[in-house]
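Sample 1 of the test manifest.
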Amino acid sequence: MALSNAGVRLIWPGRPEPHPKSVGELRHRRGSDANLRLIHGDNAAALRVLAQSGVRVALAYLDPPFFTGREHTLVERRNGRTDESTRAHAFDDRWDSLEAYLESLVERVRLTRELLLPEGCLVLHVDPRTSHYLKVLCDEVFGAASFASEIVWRYRRWPSKTRNFQRVHDVLLRYVRDPERPPRFRQLYEPLAASTLATWGNRKQRAVVDASGRRVRSSKTAEATPGTPLGDVWDIGIVAPVAKERTGYPTQKPEALLERLITSCTDLGDLVLDPYFGSGTTGVVCARLGRRLIGVDSNRRAITIARRRLAALDADPVEERLIEPDEAAPDEPDAARASLSRAG
Amino acid sequence: MALSNAGVRLIWPGRPEPHPKSVGELRHRRGSDANLRLIHGDNAAALRVLAQSGVRVALAYLDPPFFTGREHTLVERRNGRTDESTRAHAFDDRWDSLEAYLESLVERVRLTRELLLPEGCLVLHVDPRTSHYLKVLCDEVFGAASFASEIVWRYRRWPSKTRNFQRVHDVLLRYVRDPERPPRFRQLYEPLAASTLATWGNRKQRAVVDASGRRVRSSKTAEATPGTPLGDVWDIGIVAPVAKERTGYPTQKPEALLERLITSCTDLGDLVLDPYFGSGTTGVVCARLGRRLIGVDSNRRAITIARRRLAALDADPVEERLIEPDEAAPDEPDAARASLSRAG
DNA sequence: GCAGTTAATGAATCGCATG
DNA sequence: CCATGCGATTCATTAACTG
C-alpha cells in the first residue's frame, strides 16, 4: 500500500492559509563570481524574488533554528582562539509558540519547493523533538509520496547527566519534487560490515538459482565490491570546539555532512540553495565540489564570515542585498557596512 | 522553552473520540509460572481487562504492524530449516487507510498508558514512514513533556536497488508516564569513540575550570571510565536468516535490542507488558533477566511458538484466553487446540 | 468499450550473520 | 575458510477496477 496521508492534517487555532505576497528586489553590492551568490535579507522574501526570476535548483538544504527557545550568539575567532569580547547576535530562536515556529518553517519549505527542478530535492535539517510535526506538514506540502528519506545524523558529543538515553542525533527529512521522476542521485558506498568482510572479503556475491528458479545459495565472484550502498544513518563527527574548521558561528554543521549530501543529490555544475546560510558551510563545500550556490541569511555578520571563508578558497562570491517592497530607504546605510569595507 | 504542543492536533474526517467499552474476562488454561503470563486474544480488550484488575507495569513495549499493506506469514522451522508447506497466517497488516491504522494504534497506546506505573515508560517501535504521525498523536495522549527519546535502531541488511539512501533504521518512541518524576533508568555505557580512546585511553576526563568559572581544558584522571553513556542510536544486527535464534515468525526482533531496552528501563522483578507479543522475544529476554511479563497476541500460533521458546528456558508460563463480553460461546473449541496439546 | 488509475503478484537482488 | 538462506527490499508487470 502506498503511503497516502490524504485527510490527515495538522491544525491549530488560527493556522493561516498560504497567500501570495509582493516581492522585493535584489541589489548587487560586490563580488565577481556569479556561481556563488550570497543574499543578505529575509529568506522568505528572497525565495519569492528568486522564484520570480526563474531560478531552479537541484538541491535545497534548509538548516533552520531548532526551537531551542534561545538567542544564539557568535564569537570572533582569531588564530583559532575565541575572543569573548566580540560576542554578537547570530540568530533568534525564541518563538511565541510551537505553532508560530511551525508556521514560519513551513512557509519557507513551501516557497523553497517552488524553486526545485523536477528532478530536484529538498532536505530539511531538524531536531528529533520537532521533526515529527514538520514531517506531517511537509507531507501536506509535497504529498506523502514525495517523502524520500529520514536521514539520521549520528554524532558524538560530551555526555550530559540525565536519566535518559543521550540525545546524539539530528534528523534530515528529504523530499523529492516529483515522485514519478527518477531524482538526481549518485550512489555512494560505505565500508562492508566486519562480519561480511571476514566471510567474503571484498568480493561481490552472486545469487545462484536452481532450474525451478528458486535461489539455492550465493557464491563468491572475482569482482571487487565498492562496499554496501550508503544507508540513511550517518555517523559523522561534529565540528570539534577547537577544530580549524570552526568559524565561531553557532550550530555550525560539519563539511563532511554537507559533502555527502551534495555529492549524492547533485551533479557537477548543479545549483544548490541554502536559505539558512549561517557561516556558509554549504557554500564552502559547493565551491570545493564544483557546484553553484545561492545562500541567504538575514544576519550581516553571517554573510561576512561566509564571504571570508569563500575568499580563503580564492572564490569571490557575488553579494546581494534584498530590498523588500515596504522598505522606505532605497539603500540605507547600515552599521555593519563600515566593518565590511575593512574586511573586503 | 519547554516543548508544548497545546493546540496542535492531528485531525481527519470522522476521527473518533475515545470512549469506554465493557471489558471481557480472562480464562486460565495452563502453565504454572504466574510471573510469565501469555494472553491469547485481542490486545485492546486484554488491556481493558488488565486495567480493571489493577495491573501496573514498569515498561510497555509495543511492536505493532508497520503499515506495510501486506499479510505476513510464518513458516515452521525444524532443525534450522524452513518447511514451506507449513506457511500460515501470522498477522494482517492491511488497512483501509492511514487514518484507520493510526486510530487502531493510538487506541492501544492510550489503553497501555493507563497501565504504567508513575515511574514507568512506554516504548512504541515503528517505521520512519509512520513514526511522525504517531509521535504527534502520542504527544496528544501523554503530553509533549512526557516524550523522552526517539531511539534509532540501525541495522544492516541486504541492499536493494533504488535511487535513494538505503533505509536501514527503525524508530522507537519512548514516553514516560509522569515527566515530573524521575523514571526507572539504569545508566548503560557503550565503548568510547576511537578518537577518544587514542587521546585519553580509558581514563576518565575531568573538566578544568578557571577562577571565573569558565571551562578552560580537560585533564586525565586515574579513574577508569566505563565508556560513554548510552546514546539514542543503537547499532544492533538483525537476526540472521540462518541463526539459531530464528523462530520462523516474521518481523522477529533481536534479543540484543530488547535486552538493552529492558535493562535500561526496568529493575529486577519489575513487570513488563508486550501487547504485540508475536513470537515472544520480549518474554525470552524477561525470563533471562529476571523480569516478570505479560504478553498478548491474537494469533494462536504466535502464543504456541512463544510458549515453546519459554519452555526451552525451563519456564512454564501461565497461558490465558481472553473471553470478550460479546462472545457467544463460553470457551469455544478452536482448531489450534489439538496441536497445542501435542506441543505441551 | 477504452483509457487511466490502482492493487496484487512475481522477479531480481546481494550483503549479513550464522553454522 | 566455506556453505547457507533470505528479505517490515524495491522494481516491473499483470490484473482488476473506475469513470
